[in-house]
Amino acid sequence: xxxxxxxxxxxxxxxxxxxxxxxxxxxxxxxxxxxxxxxxxxxxxxxxxxxxxxxxx
Length: 57
What we know:
The protein is mainly alpha-helical.
């Protein structure tokens, strides 16, 4: 996995978790949903990079 893409994926996942937790804490459903979406985006990016790595070797 390219280091830059790996970092972006992990960052998106972490930001998503933080947003989701903050949204749940204050009762903001929109913020919670944004957090889940950001996590999913990070997961997808990570899966894409892992697939690339698999076919590279």
